[in-house]
Amino acid sequence: MQNKRNTSSLIFKQFIKEDSSPFDKLFDIWKEIIVHTSGDVDESFEWMETLDQEYQLTTPEYTLDDFREDLKKKGYIKDDKDNPQKGGMKITAKSEQMLRQSALEQIFGNLNKRGKGNHKTKHLGQSLDKTGEYRDYRFGDNLGNIALTESIRNAQINNGIGEFQLTEQDLVVEETHHKSSMSTVLMIDISHSMILYGEDRITPAKKVAMALTQLIQTRYPKDSIDVIVFGNDAWPIKIKDLPYLQVGPYHTNTVAGLHLALDILRRKRNTNKQIFMITDGKPSCVREKDGFYYKNSFGLDPYITEQCYTMAAQARKIKIPITTFMIARDSYLMEFVENFTEANQGKAFYTGLQGLGEMIFEDYETNRKKRLR
């Protein structure tokens, strides 16, 4: 009798992407524009109208008015009751969260490829992240970490199969990585240079901030993230206000930013603490004790830079590393960053706007895998 082998047939055909709805097409564009306009809905629609005239984004069946109405119905925008005389709209809390999630997916889209779980350190402790290594059970060990298969095998070897007995001496536990939490302060330069020379540097920095905060809140809920901005002075901003972040007619008071960052971290209970600083320029301003602002936009002023180095050294003494992301490559700026980094024994990355988010994520992940001492 001839044996017949069952075969399953596979049919290959060209992938045809499903057409997205008119709303979804416009929504993808609007999400980008609303970040550039710092949450200004009316200005975002002026941009949309300009793009529509050039690229025919809408049709007679679905206009920008229809899109605006759908945004309102879906809860992304609402009437601006704070300024009723203007008759304008503003984005909602739903939009703020959506923009953070969108930035996360856009910048850190490869997160799900990296697997899940909290960070691990090289130190062993009680946790759910197992190492694959075993040791004898000790009083006080988490019972959930007992390796049943290995323990039963020990009992059979030690006591025989006839009268099965499992004693404390037979128990083994699987080692686990110690989980530690991280407190991070993200410093963002909002000096005027962040939009000078025809290059928008604040929008990518803003997207990175939204993505990083969303990452920490969703993937590492035990970690903390604070965002501060620095110009002539420094002040904290709420995560929900990140889409509205704008530059101002400011100099760069790096010292004020570092003062505030260290004050915030001193109040944190977490063992691991760090500062991320995104900047494109040299420090050009410090505030004196009498409230007077000393400013110098020309070159590197030792009076200002020495105070920066002092702050960097102070952070080093209390074991807070500073990672600087310099989005400019002028030689004299690199000289400042090198001296600053040496004073802190931290890290510095000279990067353009492209890849800034991925670089910050990589460094965040790396820092979380080691216990900062």
TrEMBL record:
One Pfam family assigned to this protein is VWA_2
Where would I find the VWFA domain in this sequence? 184-282
Annotated protein name in UniProt: von Willebrand factor type A domain-containing protein
